[in-house]
Amino acid sequence: MDKWMKNNNFNKILALALGIILWTIVHVDTAPTYQTTVNTESKTIENVKVEIEGFDSDNYVLTKDVDSVRMEVRGKRSDLTYKFSDAYRVWLDLKDVKPGDNTLPLMYSTPSGVTLDDMVPNQVNVHIELRTTKSFPVSLNITGEPASGYEVGTPVIDPASVEVTLPASDLGRVAKVQGKIELDGENEAFSEKKLRLYALDNKGNELEDAVIEPSTAAVEVPITLPSKTLPLDISFTGSLPGSLVLSRVTPEQDMVTVYGSAESLKTLSSYEAVLDLSTVKNAGTEQMKLELKPPEGTGKIEPAVMNVSVSAAEITQRTLSAMPIKLEGVSNGLTALILDPVSTSIDLTISGAPALLDQLDQDSISVVADVGGLTAGIHDVTLQVSLPRFITLQNTPSQLIAKIELLAPATPEATVGADSSTPAPSPEPSAEPVTGEETIVEPTPVHTGDIVEETPSPTPTPPENEVTPPAGGNNAGSTGGT
User: What is the pTM of this model?
Assistant: First the structure.
C-alpha cells in the first residue's frame, strides 16, 4: 500500500475521484431543494364528481349524501397550470359493501407531481337497498280537444303494461304509469311510436328514480266523427219488365255506419237505400251495385258502395183457403162476434215468385179485424192482411170486409124483496075458463115468524144467437182486448 501511495500518478487519480464525488454530493443535495422551495404552490379544485365503482346497479339502488368534493392540492406551477381538472379523480369503492347504511372513505388520485393537501368531505354516507320490480298497466293522459264535432275514441297502447323497478320502500308509492298526449284540433287519428312513459304517485308527481321497462310505448288514438250503426232497409224504384217479380234481395251486409254530429244522428233509426229495378232484364239472379249516400246533415257513411244479390222470377198465383180472422182491439167489457163471414175465415188469392209461394203456410200470413175504438153495435170492418215481402194480395177491397157485432154486457133485473110485515093476499081462483093462454098462479108465501120464504124464480135463458165463443177462438169476448 505504501508503494501505491508513493506513486505520484496514483495520487493524482485518487484526488480526481474524490473531487468528482464531492462535487456530485454538493449539487445533488442542493439543486432539488432549491427548486421545491421556490416553485411549489397550492390550488383548489372545486366540484370533483364522486364516481362509483364496483356497484351492482341491476339489483340494488344506491343513495348517498355526497355527489362531489373540493380538493386542495399542491405542486409546481407548471404541473398545476397545465393539468386538466378531469385528471383529478375521486371514487367510492362499493365492491364488497352489503345492503344497508354505510359510511365509507373516498379514494382519490392526482396527476404526477401534484399532492393532496386536503379533501372536503373525505367520506360518504351511503344507503344500499335491493331493487323490486312490479308490472303496471299503461294509461294515457289526454289534454286539449280534437276538431269541432269530433270525438276521441279508445286509445290503442302497445305494450299495454310495463315493469317498474324501484327500492321496495318506494315501489308502493307508484299509483300509475302514464303517457301524456296534447290534442290541438286534430280531425284524424293521432299516433306516436315512442311516447315517453312516467311513473306517478297518487298526487300526480313523477317518481324520477323509477326504472321503466320499456320506457316508451306506441300509441294510436282514434279521432272520428260520432257514429251510429243503423239497420239497412232497401226500397225500390222503377219496375221489373214483363211478368217478372222479385223473389229475393240480399245485401252483403244488413247494417251500415253513419258518421256525423251527435245532433244529426239523434233522429236516425234506420237507413233506407233505393234500388232501381228497371236495370233487371231477365229472370234469375244477378249482382247489383248499390250506392249509399250519407243522410242529410251527416258526414259520411260506411260502406259507401254495397253489392246486392237480386233474384227475379215469373209471377204465379196461389189461393190460400180458410185463413182464420183474428179479432184485435176489443174494448173493455165488450164481447165481439164475427157475423160475416160465418166461417170466421177468408180465402186469400196471392201472387209472387213460385219459390216464395211454395213456402207459405197459415203461420206466414195474418188476417186481423181491428175493432179498436168501436162501440157496441154491428160494424163493417176492413180486414188487415200481413204478407211476407215480395208477395202481393189479389183480393178486391170488397172481399176484405167483415161484419162484426160488439155486445155490451146484459143489465141484470132488479129483485124486489117481499114485505114481511104485511102478508100478501092469496089470489082467488078465477071463475073464467082458460082461453088458450096458460095462467101461472104464484104460490102463497108461507109465514114462519118474521121470515118469508119465496119460491125462487127460474134463471132467464140467454137468446139462442148469443153464444160466447171459447177462449182462443176467432170470436173473442174481451175484458180488455184480444
Answer: 0.47
Residue 327 CB neighbours (<10 A): 26
- Average model confidence (pLDDT) for the chain? 81
CB neighbour burial string for 55-64, b if at least 16 within 10 angstroms, e if fewer? beeeebbbeb
| Cα–Cα distance, 472 to 306 (Å, whole number) | 46
Q: Is the CB of residue 219 less than 8 Å from the CB of residue 156?
A: yes
Parallel, antiparallel, or unpaired for β 100-105 and 114-120?
A: unpaired
Q: How far apart are CA 328 and CA 29, in angstroms?
A: 135
Question: To which residue does cell 239497412 refer?
Answer: 232
CB atoms under 10 Å from CB of 103, counted, come to 9
Dist CA 238 CA 275 (whole Å): 8
Query: What is the spatial distance between Cα 345 and Cα 326, in angstroms, rounded to a whole number?
Result: 9
Query: pLDDT tens digits for 206-261?
Result: 998 898 999 999 999 999 888 899 999 999 999 898 899 999 999 999 999 999 88
The C-alpha atoms of residue 468 and residue 229 are separated, in whole angstroms, by: 50
